[in-house]
């Protein structure tokens, strides 16, 4: 039985990751900012004895250190960490705000950096860190396209560099880290026009992650395992 840690597990892809791993019999540590209001997640934990819900805010380093310390004191090791928590703000050029850029970068980049660093010491040998990115972070795909999610695209490009920068250190510890795009998914963020259901995306992600090895460290891939140009 593997130990799975999911950030941003109260809804969407994070919730489905927790659900599918719970159904597979894995031990799931599902985190979100406010467990008291995470009704679907709490229902999942009531339905499965192998799911625990913990408070974690990726922009609050103390909550990261607190959970990492709890896991360490129990003597547990994390086999797969899904760094999934993220945010997006729609603003067209000419309407950009410093607040939206700052909040997006703090959550999607700084928060992910603190997650990588904070949980590295509790990862199992051969453990895998899956940083949920987006194809929108690819210069080749999105570099010449205007849109309303510029701060989000910028943050995912920065996240990809973060993965590249940290992958060698993690690999030396026997831990794999990748940036993974889940595809365009029917979530609150992706909208109902998206290509994939949450179930389809997560099923593919789990299969892809199961096949990753240390040789894949630092790669930018999609949910099927195909590499995405930077």
From TrEMBL:
Q: Which family does it belong to?
A: Belongs to the short-chain dehydrogenases/reductases (SDR) family.
TM stretches of this protein: none
Q: Which domain of life is it from?
A: Bacteria
Molecular function (GO) terms listed? oxidoreductase activity, acting on the CH-OH group of donors, NAD or NADP as acceptor
Q: Which Pfam families match?
A: adh_short
Q: Which CDD domains match?
A: carb_red_sniffer_like_SDR_c
Name of the molecule in the record: SDR family oxidoreductase
**InterPro entries hit by this protein:** NAD(P)-bd_dom_sf (IPR036291), SDR_enzymes (IPR052184), SDR_fam (IPR002347)
Native organism is Pelagicoccus enzymogenes
